Every structure is written in structure tokens, then in C-alpha cells.
């Protein structure tokens, strides 16, 4: 058991520090296009007691474009623009009862930074940053009633894998947190990088 753990650790160290050919992302500039599915929900903890569970999620498409400034093979700066458009279906069975829901229909602008492990073919990454959302936000739950068209701060966070010989394909999970609206959007998306240099 200890021998296997030690060998795994040595392989990881060798891959991370001694492989000169390992490039997890290309240095230089590129453009990334991403498409996916978003689900909006309230991150405020609801206490429903003994009542039936209330569905307060919305779902819909997610689109994002990034301009990638590759500083190093493991570090990049990424200004972005995109949109999240989630909605809920009306429940015709609920008459004279509130229709709880969380929706986001907004354009996203901001910047994030990426740290990416220098591993060829499959490179894990993590991203974080700050941005603004312009659009309509609705968080209607038993404890929250937020319904505004506004410009709100959001905090993006992502984890994923860059795949392929040049790490051009990506799959990942992202979150956009809107503290003012007490909601967040979780995203599963795929993307492709188009090198400019």
C-alpha cells in the first residue's frame, strides 16, 4: 500500500516538474466559445417543515465567449461575455397558490483567471474572477421575493478538464453567484479554443 502511494506521488512530481514538453494551454492569445445548460436556484436555505417539497429551480441555455490571454502554459487571464437564460414551466395544477421559482435572464461581462495543471492530453483547471450581470432576476421562494431588472455583481467559479493534443476541447462545471438576488446558476458546458497566434 505504501509502495503504491509512493510510486503515485513520484509519478505526479515527475509529470508536474520535469516534463518540458507538457503544455496544458498554449501561451499566446485565443478565443474560446462555450455552450451548455444552466440551472438557477436559490442558495438561501429554505425550511419547508412538513409541507411538500417546493421546486424553485429554473433551467435553460448558457452561452459564453472568452478572449484568452495566455501568460504562461499554466496561467491565463480571460475577459468574457455571454448569457444565462433560465425559466420554469408553469404548473397548471397549482390554482390560487404561489408559483415558487428562480430564474436568471442576463448578459454576463467580466474577467477571470485560470490555473491549469501542465499535463498533456487531459489538463485539469480551476478558474475564478468577478463580473457583472445585466438583466432580469427572479427569486421567489417561501422566504425570498426578489424580482428586478438590474445590473448585479456576480462571482464566477469553474473547474474542468482541457482535453486533446493541444488542449483545445474543454468540459467543465461553472457557478455564477449573485449575492444581491440570493441565487446562483450552475452550468455544465463544453467549449473549444480557437488560437489566434
Can you tell me about this structure?
It contains one helix and eight strands, in the order αββββββββ. Mean pLDDT is 82; it is low at 13-24 and 49-53. Strand 5 and strand 6 form a beta hairpin. The termini are far apart. The radius of gyration is 20 Å and the shape is elongated. Strands 1-2-3-4-5-6-7-8 form an eight-stranded antiparallel β-barrel. By secondary structure, the chain is mainly beta.
Percent strand equals over 45%
Stated plainly, the CATH topology is called Porin
Provide the helix percentage: under 10%
How many distinct helices? 1
Radius of gyration: 20 Å
Which of globular, elongated, flat, extended, rod-shaped describes the shape?
elongated
Q: Tally of extended strands?
A: 8
Profile the largest sheet: 8 strands, antiparallel, barrel
Structural class call reads mainly beta
What is the CA–CA distance across the termini? 47 Å
**How many domains, as an integer?**
1
CATH top level?
Answer: Mainly Beta
Stretches where pLDDT is under 50 for at least 5 consecutive residues are 13-24, 49-53
Mean pLDDT: 82
